[in-house]
């Protein structure tokens, strides 16, 4: 919270002394700590103080906002940049088209792409965006045609080339051409740039894959039961639900349904708990010290500090006070942080989304993850299978000790019996059924969805993705030894 106060003071000083460049840099840091409302105001003031290169400044701001998933807020700045910069400068229209695709405004995507291709007919990002819009509109032949030349092009290693190959794979998948889809996704992996931070990403990926092992090594049943009982002694109880699960397990579908409830509010896909609680908890501690020991040694004043900081930053991210509503903190990554959650926020209700690990594997392998440590974890089906098994293995260890705090929701049950399963989830977190919870697609149309599944969530609830892995069985067969124990433990064998 001291960082928040310091940045607000710096922003005020930059405004008073009319220093737009300084104000922009301060606002960028405010975005990094979820103080986004003040950041946007600072960006607007900075632009009003800017006397030259307005288009470049607006482009920089719009790009920064989109990188921080503030897509709606980025539009005004990118549109200003688009109007200010030269007509053949495609940076602003490309970013705008990307944002509009994210927001589901496909007609605007098509308009911008037409302009871009007029000046740069070989633009790979423009062709990808056109293909994505066509695919979402059901025009699969047209979508495939937009990327037909990818097989013939000599393209440098670049994230945009990888994105185009991922999109090509999804079009083939939609058509039912599964061998071509798998080939496209495997080709996409080859286009991740290997310079810059690649070596660092590889090290981080190994840490992430094996992180559950470090949790397993020291965690016992006594730890969890002791921490859960500790909820009674902590004042200022929060109405909080942790919605976790392996990525691609249906957490976004559940989150949209729960967020529609008038007595709930969702903080979707933030890293607040990791950044403000979990990370600081272990910062500076010896690498060999068991995590459970560090958590067990926390004093009541320390717990109260972390709880207070967490609540402050959740409300910053939400942009409003919770006013007693049930807060839904939805992030699949919270699965591996559950021991820390239980220690610091033991009153939290836990909703655990599960799905057939084979469907998870295909879904996450085909996901266009940006070039970072997460993407490195999924460069091959083998590494993806290892990741899935390790992450779900943590839940298998934890579940027996969380009978009252946790409610398990299987994706297959949710999509086939949506209303009863959502009612069960609501009941677990102390809320009654509300008719608004029955239409997650409508809710997704009313707000910006942060999850990578932003396009799929706009569709009505369906079960077409159940058993999708069978289309790729020949590629998954070599990975089954990695998943066998997990499949059996979760009832999917």
From TrEMBL:
Domain of life: Bacteria
Keyword Transferase among record annotations: yes
Repeat positions for TPR: 162-195
PROSITE patterns: TPR
Keyword Zinc (UniProt): no
Pfam name, any one: Sulfotransfer_3
GO molecular function, a single term: protein-tyrosine sulfotransferase activity
Keyword tags: TPR repeat, Transferase
Name the UniProt record assigns to this protein: Sulfotransferase
């Amino acid at each position: 919270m001291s960082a928040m106060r310091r940045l607000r003071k710096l922003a005020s000083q930059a405004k008073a002394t009319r220093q737009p460049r300084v104000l922009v840099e301060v606002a960028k840091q405010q975005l990094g700590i979820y103080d986004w409302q003040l950041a946007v105001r600072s960006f607007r003031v900075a632009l009003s103080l800017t006397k030259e290169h307005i288009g470049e400044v607006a482009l920089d701001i719009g790009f920064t906002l989109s990188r921080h998933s503030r897509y709606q807020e980025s539009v005004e700045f990118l549109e200003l940049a688009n109007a200010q910069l030269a007509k053949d400068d495609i940076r602003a229209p490309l970013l705008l088209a990307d944002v509009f695709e994210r927001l589901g405004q496909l007609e605007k995507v098509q308009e911008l792409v037409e302009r871009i291709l007029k000046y740069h007919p070989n633009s790979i990002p423009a062709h990808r965006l056109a293909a994505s819009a066509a695919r979402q509109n059901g025009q699969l032949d047209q979508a495939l045609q937009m990327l037909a030349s990818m097989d013939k092009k000599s393209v440098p290693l670049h994230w945009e080339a990888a994105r185009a190959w991922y999109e090509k794979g999804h079009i083939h998948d939609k058509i039912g051409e599964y061998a071509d889809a798998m080939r496209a996704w495997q080709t996409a992996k080859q286009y991740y740039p290997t310079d810059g931070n690649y070596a660092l990403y590889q090290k981080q990926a190994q840490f992430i894959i094996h992180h559950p092992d470090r949790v397993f090594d020291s965690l016992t049943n006594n730890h969890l039961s002791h921490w859960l009982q500790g909820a009674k002694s902590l004042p200022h109880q929060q109405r909080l639900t942790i919605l976790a699960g392996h990525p691609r397990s249906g957490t976004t579908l559940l989150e949209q349904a729960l967020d529609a409830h008038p007595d709930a509010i969702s903080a979707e896909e933030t890293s607040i708990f990791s950044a403000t609680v979990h990370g600081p908890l272990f910062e500076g501690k010896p690498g060999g010290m068991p995590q459970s020991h560090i958590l067990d040694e926390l004093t009541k004043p320390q717990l109260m500090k972390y709880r207070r900081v967490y609540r402050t930053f959740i409300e910053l991210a939400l942009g409003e006070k919770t006013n007693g509503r049930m807060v839904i903190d939805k992030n699949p990554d919270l699965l591996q942080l559950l021991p820390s959650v239980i220690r610091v926020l033991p009153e939290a209700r836990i909703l655990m989304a599960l799905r057939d690990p084979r469907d998870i594997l295909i879904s996450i392998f085909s996901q266009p993850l940006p070039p970072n440590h997460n993407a490195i974890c999924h460069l091959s089906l083998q590494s993806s299978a290892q990741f899935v098994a390790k992450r779900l293995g943590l839940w298998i260890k934890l579940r027996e000790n969380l009978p009252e705090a946790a409610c398990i929701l299987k994706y297959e049950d949710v999509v086939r019996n949506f209303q009863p399963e959502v009612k069960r989830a609501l009941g677990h977190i102390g809320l009654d059924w509300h008719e608004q919870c029955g239409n997650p697609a409508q809710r997704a149309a009313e707000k910006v969805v942060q999850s990578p599944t932003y396009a799929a969530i706009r569709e009505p609830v369906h079960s077409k993705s159940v058993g999708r892995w069978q289309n790729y069985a020949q590629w998954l067969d070599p990975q089954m030894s990695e998943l066998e124990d997990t499949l059996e433990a979760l009832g999917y064998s």
